[in-house]
C-alpha cells in the first residue's frame, strides 16, 4: 500500500505540543518503571515489620502479574477510546494502589495495594508508548523510543538506590509516597498536552479479555512461583499449566468470533509483530536472568554491600542506554532497523559467554566490562521492537501492537527469572553437598560464608560460582536463539510522514494466513 500523507486537518499532531507530550510520556514511563524496581531494597524491612516471609514474593509477583495481564486490554481500550482518557484512568489507578501500599498495616493490605498499582502500571507503559505513535511519524519515532529505552535503563539503577535511601534514612512507606508527585505531574501535563478522542459506540471483547487474563495469569504465576513457593511437580503447578493451555484455546476461539478482538489474531500473521515479539521475549529472559543473579554473586562471593552491588550494574545500564539511544537515532536517520537486532543479539551473546568465565577472584572492573556488553546487546532490541511494530501494524491496532511488545517482554523476563532460579538452586545444592557447616543452597550468604573454616569457605565460593555458569551459558544460548530469529525479521522502511494506514499493513500472504487462523 502506498503511503498517503495526511493533511493538516487530519494530522493527529496538529495543535499539540510535541515536546510537552514527550515530557509527559517520559515521566509516565519513569513512574511505571520505578513502580517495579524501587520495592526490592525494602522487602527485608517490610518482612521484619509485618512478618509473613512466606508471602514476601507476592509483593513483587502481584505487581508483575497485574501489569502483565492488563497490558493488551489497555492497548485495545486506547485504540477504541483514545489514549488520553485511558492513560488518565491508568495513572489514577496506579496512584490509588501507591496510596494504599504506603499506608499498609499488614502484608495482605500491601499485596492488595501492589496489585492495584500493577493494574494501573500495565496501562502506563503501553498507552504512554502508543501516544508517541499518534503524534510522531514512524521515522522520527525511532530516536524518541531510544530515549525512552534510556529511561527504563536509568530506572533499573535509580529504583533500587532510591528505595535503599528511603529505607535507610526515612521509612519504607516513602517508596510509595514518592509516586504521588510524579503521578500528579504526569496527570497534569497529559491533561494539557493530549487531545481527547471523539467518542463512538464500540463493542468490547469481554470474553476474549477474560480468557486472555486467565492465560497470562496462569503463565506468570507458574513461572514466578514454580520451583520456589510451589514445587514444579505439585498439583498447583500442574493445575496452572492446564489452566494456561485450556484458556489459550478458549481465547483463540473467542478472538475468531469477536467484532473488536482484544488481541487480533491477524497480528500474529504479521512478520514484524511476530518476530519482534519473539526476539523481545527471548532477550527479556536473558536480561532479567543476568540482572537478578549478578548482584547475588557480588554480595555473596565478592562481599560487597547491597548498594555497591546495585552500583555494579551501572556499566550494564550505560551500555543499554548508549546502545538504545544510538539505535534510535540510527533508525530515524536511515529509516531502517533490521540490522540493529541482529547486531545487538550478537553482542549480547558475546557478553553472556564472557560472563561464563567469571570466577571467585574476577575483578569488578572486568565484570563491569562484560556487563557493558550485555547492556549494549539488550538496549537496541527494546527500542527497535516498539518502533518496528508500530510502523508495521494498521493505525487502528497501534495500541494492541505496542501492548504485545510489553506483554511478551515481561513474560520472557518472568520465565527467565524462574527458569534461571531453578537452574541455579539445583546446581548450587548439588555442589554444596558434603560441605560441613552449610545446610544447603538456601542457607548460603556472606555471613554464613565468613563463619566457615577457610577450606570449607573456599569450596563454598567455588560451588557458588560454578552454579552461576550454567545460567550464563543458558543466557548465551538464548541470545543465539534471538539472533537466529532476528535474521528472519522483515524490514519495512519507516515512513517519514503520517499515513492513513501503514505501508506494512498485512500483505497478501500474511492476510491469507490470518484468514486461515480466524477461519
Describe this structure in words.
One of its GO terms (molecular function) is transmembrane transporter activity. Pfam families: MFS_1. The chain is an all-alpha fold and 519 residues long. It has 2 domains: 10-204, Growth Hormone, Chain: A (Up-down Bundle), CATH 1.20.1250.20; 267-492, MFS general substrate transporter like domains (Growth Hormone, Chain: A, Up-down Bundle), CATH 1.20.1250.20. It is 74% helix and 0% strand. It is built from 19 helices and no strands. It has helices at 18-37, 43-50, 56-81, 83-102, 107-135, 138-169, 174-177, 179-193, 206-225, 235-255, 271-302, 306-311, 314-334, 339-355, 364-392, 398-432, 446-450, 454-486, 508-518. The protein is globular and about 70 Å long. The two termini are 25 Å apart. Mean pLDDT is 75; it is low at 1-10 and 501-519.
Give me the secondary-structure topology:
Blueprint: H1 18-37, H2 43-50, H3 56-81, H4 83-102, H5 107-135, H6 138-169, H7 174-177, H8 179-193, H9 206-225, H10 235-255, H11 271-302, H12 306-311, H13 314-334, H14 339-355, H15 364-392, H16 398-432, H17 446-450, H18 454-486, H19 508-518
Helix pairs in contact: 1-5, 1-6, 1-8, 3-4, 3-5, 3-9, 3-16, 4-5, 4-8, 5-16, 6-13, 6-15, 9-10, 9-16, 11-15, 11-16, 11-18, 13-15, 14-15, 14-18, 15-16, 16-18
Amino acid at each position: 500500500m502506498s503511503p498517503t500523507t495526511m493533511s493538516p486537518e487530519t494530522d493527529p499532531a496538529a495543535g499539540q505540543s510535541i515536546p510537552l507530550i514527550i515530557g509527559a510520556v517520559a515521566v509516565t514511563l519513569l513512574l511505571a518503571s520505578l513502580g517495579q524496581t524501587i520495592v526490592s531494597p525494602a522487602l527485608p524491612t517490610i518482612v521484619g515489620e509485618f512478618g509473613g516471609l512466606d508471602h514476601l514474593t507476592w509483593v513483587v509477583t502481584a505487581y508483575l502479574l497485574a501489569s502483565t495481564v492488563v497490558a493488551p486490554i489497555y492497548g485495545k481500550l486506547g485504540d477504541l477510546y483514545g489514549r488520553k482518557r485511558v492513560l488518565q484512568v491508568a495513572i489514577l489507578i496506579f496512584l490509588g494502589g501507591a496510596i494504599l501500599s504506603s499506608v499498609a498495616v499488614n502484608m495482605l493490605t500491601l499485596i492488595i495495594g501492589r496489585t492495584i498499582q500493577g493494574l494501573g502500571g500495565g496501562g502506563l507503559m503501553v498507552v504512554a508508548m502508543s501516544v508517541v505513535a499518534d503524534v510522531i511519524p514512524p521515522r522520527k519515532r525511532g530516536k524518541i523510543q531510544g530515549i525512552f529505552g534510556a529511561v527504563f535503563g536509568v530506572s533499573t539503577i535509580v529504583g533500587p538506590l532510591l528505595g535503599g535511601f528511603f529505607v535507610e534514612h526515612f521509612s519504607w512507606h516513602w517508596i510509595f509516597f514518592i509516586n504521588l508527585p510524579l503521578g500528579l505531574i504526569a496527570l497534569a501535563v497529559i491533561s494539557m498536552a493530549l487531545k481527547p478522542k471523539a467518542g463512538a459506540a464500540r463493542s468490547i471483547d469481554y470474553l476474549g479479555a477474560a480468557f486472555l487474563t486467565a492465560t497470562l495469569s496462569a503463565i506468570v504465576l507458574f513461572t514466578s512461583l514454580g520451583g520456589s513457593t510451589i514445587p514444579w511437580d505439585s498439583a498447583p503447578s500442574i493445575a496452572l499449566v492446564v489452566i494456561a493451555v485450556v484458556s489459550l484455546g478458549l481465547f483463540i476461539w473467542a478472538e475468531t468470533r469477536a467484532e473488536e478482538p482484544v488481541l487480533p489474531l491477524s497480528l500474529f500473521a504479521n512478520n514484524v509483530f511476530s518476530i519482534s515479539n519473539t526476539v523481545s521475549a527471548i532477550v527479556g529472559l536473558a536480561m532479567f536472568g543476568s540482572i537478578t543473579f549478578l548482584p547475588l554473586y557480588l554480595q555473596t562471593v565478592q562481599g560487597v554491600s547491597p548498594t555497591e552491588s546495585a552500583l555494579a550494574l551501572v556499566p550494564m545500564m550505560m551500555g543499554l542506554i548508549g546502545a538504545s539511544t544510538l539505535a534510535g537515532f540510527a533508525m530515524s536517520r536511515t529509516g531502517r532497523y533490521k540490522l540493529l537486532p541482529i547486531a545487538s543479539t550478537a553482542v549480547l551473546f558475546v557478553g553472556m559467554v564472557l560472563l561464563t568465565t567469571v570466577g571467585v577472584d574476577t575483578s569488578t572492573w572486568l565484570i563491569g566490562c562484560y556487563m557493558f556488553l550485555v547492556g549494549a546487546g539488550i538496549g537496541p532490541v527494546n527500542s527497535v521492537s516498539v518502533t518496528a511494530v508500530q510502523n508495521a501494524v494498521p493505525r487502528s491496532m497501534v495500541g494492541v501492537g505496542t501492548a504485545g511488545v510489553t506483554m511478551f517482554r515481561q513474560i520472557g523476563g518472568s520465565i527467565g527469572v524462574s527458569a534461571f532460579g531453578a537452574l541455579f538452586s539445583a546446581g548450587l545444592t548439588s555442589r554444596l553437598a558434603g560441605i560441613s557447616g552449610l545446610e544447603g543452597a538456601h542457607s548460603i550468604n556472606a555471613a554464613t560464608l565468613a563463619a566457615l573454616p577457610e577450606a570449607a569457605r573456599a569450596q563454598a565460593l567455588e560451588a557458588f560460582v560454578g552454579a552461576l555458569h550454567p545460567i550464563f551459558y543458558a543466557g548465551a544460548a538464548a541470545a543465539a536463539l534471538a539472533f537466529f530469529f532476528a535474521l528472519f525479521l522483515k524490514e519495512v522502511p519507516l515512513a517519514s510522514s503520517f499515513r492513513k494506514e501503514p505501508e506494512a499493513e498485512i500483505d497478501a500472504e500474511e492476510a491469507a494466513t490470518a484468514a486461515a487462523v480466524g477461519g
